[in-house]
Design brief:
Strand content: 15-25%
Shape: globular
Order of helices and strands: HHHHHHHHEEHEEEEHEE
Helix content: 40-55%
Strand order of the largest sheet: 1-6-8-7-3-4-2-5
Number of strands: 8
Distance between the termini: 39 Å
Length: 293
């Protein structure tokens, strides 16, 4: 039963990956059901049963999220180019859909994004993507490494995890303004609390960028501070594909791998390094690190 379920989820993950790679193309029921190798007469119900949202709405939300992120990059493409690259036939159709979801025109969002409607809009999309995250791992997927210390610049989030995406967008904008590309400066997340603490106000995580030893932070920039991820032994579990929710990987390390390993944890939080893979069809990857003595 487990093998059959995993096989089914693998096919559904293939569908999401296909959608991500073809947001500017044909994503109607016939095209997407063909990718899944499922009958189009049942696929729309299968998709909604699996992800809690219809295929049409999922595609629309995925296109709007891509477009909004490109709009937030003020020096990027024109609004017209973003509309066409996001799968809309005309800029007017894009503007109507954008205004309906975010209560802002694309041009207004580019100048001054209102993040609260943005967060509410993409709640169903984030929830859908987390439904088929792998929740089972095996000991042979975990490696123990000696990790070198890494100097980082830290962008902190404190408070309700529901607004974490706002902090992430601000972090991305700051990183771009600072000229720190993920290709040249590695990206890390450090978690100080569980993903859903009893009191949401207690949630804390840090978004970090690896920097050179001689990197200086502008004293006037109060949004970031200097820090270091210490070196030492770590248990490392790699996750590929959709890395939106890494809690299953972290729980596996804490709950299953650690008690059976005979290892002891070091006094530093669990963290991950994120990778932006060279080939878009490969998706993303993250390596979850559990510091060990």
């Amino acid at each position: 039963m487990t093998a059959a379920r995993d096989h089914y989820h693998a096919w559904m993950q293939r569908v999401l990956d296909h959608i991500d790679r073809h947001l500017d193309g044909d994503l109607d029921l016939d095209a997407v059901s063909g990718v899944a190798a499922f009958s189009k007469f049942h696929f729309h119900r299968q998709f909604k049963a699996t992800f809690g949202v219809s295929l049409h709405r999922y595609v629309q939300l995925a296109r709007l999220r891509l477009a909004s992120k490109r709009l937030a990059d003020r020096e990027g493409q024109s609004v017209t180019d973003i509309a066409l690259d996001s799968g809309y036939e005309t800029p007017d159709a894009f503007a109507r859909a954008f205004r309906q979801r975010f209560r802002q025109s694309p041009s207004s969002f580019r100048k001054c994004p209102d993040w609260e409607p943005w967060l509410r809009t993409f709640g169903p999309l984030n929830s859908a993507r987390s439904k088929i995250m792998p929740t089972t791992f095996t000991p042979n997927e975990v490696t123990i490494r000696e990790v070198a210390p890494t100097r980082v610049t830290i962008f902190e989030h404190r408070g309700d995890p529901e607004i974490l995406d706002v902090t992430i967008q601000k972090f991305i904008a700051w990183r771009k303004a600072a000229g720190m590309s993920p290709k040249t400066n590695p990206a890390f997340n450090i978690w100080y609390t569980e993903r859903r603490p009893t009191n949401p106000a207690d949630y804390r995580m840090e978004l970090c960028v690896g920097v050179d030893a001689d990197h200086c932070i502008d004293p006037a920039d109060e949004t970031v501070r200097a820090g270091e991820i210490p070196g030492g032994r770590c248990a490392v579990l790699r996750v590929t594909g959709d890395t939106h929710n890494l809690e299953p990987a972290a729980l596996y390390l804490y709950r299953d791998w650690l008690p059976a390993s005979g290892e002891e944890m070091r006094d530093f939080p669990i963290y991950c390094q994120r990778f932006f893979l060279a080939e878009p069809e490969q998706g993303t990857a993250a390596e979850v690190h559990l510091p060990l003595k």
